[in-house]
Amino acid sequence: MNEYLYNALIAFLQFLYTIFIVALTDKLVKKKVISQGLSRKIVHMWAGGMVLFWPLYEGTTAPYFFCVTPGIWIGLLIYVAMTKGPDDPTVRSMTRTGDPKELLRGVLYFPVMTIVLTLVFWHGTPLGKDQFPALAGIAAVGFGDGLAPIFGQYAKRHIEIWKGVKKSGLGSLGMFLGSLISIPTLSYVVLGYLPELWKILFIVLVATLVEFLSYKDVDNLIVAFMVALVAYLIV
Known about the structure:
Elements: H1 3-30, H2 36-48, H3 62-66, H4 68-83, H5 89-94, H6 106-121, H7 132-152, E1 159-162, E2 165-167, H8 169-191, H9 197-213, H10 219-234
Antiparallel strand pairs: 1-2
Helix pairs in contact: 1-2, 2-7, 4-6, 6-7, 6-10, 7-8, 7-9, 7-10, 8-9, 9-10
């Protein structure tokens, strides 16, 4: 099959992958099976799993076709935030409070971060000795930052890091475990190798510390870029 047609087909399947989880979590929120906060983090982790599509793409156009889905979501999030209300499925499944404008903050930064890391670190680019830095950054945000608030909600004590921003030891434990499990697992499945254990542990510790110190909403960018930088330097 022609490279463009093949990659377009994979991109379409990748987009369906994201639509599926938004539709599913919206239905679960409407039926009060899960909260909006939990729905948001499920979508967060599911989005981190988009890197599983990397090996399916072929040729020099691969990273650009991969970025089609997060690019579409950037447009959709802006459109929904500006035109829709609290009852929109995207708002229900991706926000904490039901405020559509919330989509323009941390939620929007996830696809932006995904595109930047993919294009910068794709194999064959000036910085792309391999795609591990991008994978590590996306996994840390998707799964680590996805688990952090789920663990954190059970904490009895929180520390106010910045004004209005509280963190907990349990939340940091969730960040650590989510990153520790997802980074090596995805590296092995997607890239076919495992970095040395000390390198993984160092990257995970950096991710946990940066998330702990990050301001609300911008952590999707700060954690991802710091993790990618550290991974690039040591792996």
